[in-house]
Amino acid sequence: MRLREWATPLTIGAFVLMAATGLLMFFHLDTAFNKPAHEWVGLVMVAAVAAHAVANWTSFKRYFLMSRPGRALIGLGAVALALSFIPIAGGDEGGPPPVLAMRAVSKAPIANVAALSGRPAEEVMADLAKVGIRMPSAQANLDSVVAGNRELQGKAMRALFSAPQPGG
Hints:
By secondary structure, the protein is mainly alpha-helical. It is built from nine helices and no strands.
């Protein structure tokens, strides 16, 4: 099978999925599967576009060599990419809201976090111990115990804020 026979349709298919999921995420209409689909198909799209460029190399290099608008648009894309790496001062105020909330919960004494969960500190500490997180006191914070371990942070958040299971 020739490269062009599958590279171009794969590029088109990946673009359709990327465009649809990107728009859904932009307008906050996405479902739980849209973001991972967008990310993983993005990787497929990179490979598909590379294969498409190879399959159409003669036409592709014309944009670099003979087309002033083509070079301008490619250059504009390169400049936009470079600018996207420049941090905007005060742009996100320390991160997205869920990250800020996690950071605040992780740095607060577990007694304060227990109040947020609507349960006594002793009960929260017992639930944390069940998932392998032993708090030395109600004044200790999660940061001091989990030491940046994301897996333990996730277990802690589930133990703190999940609805109690029947019989458990």
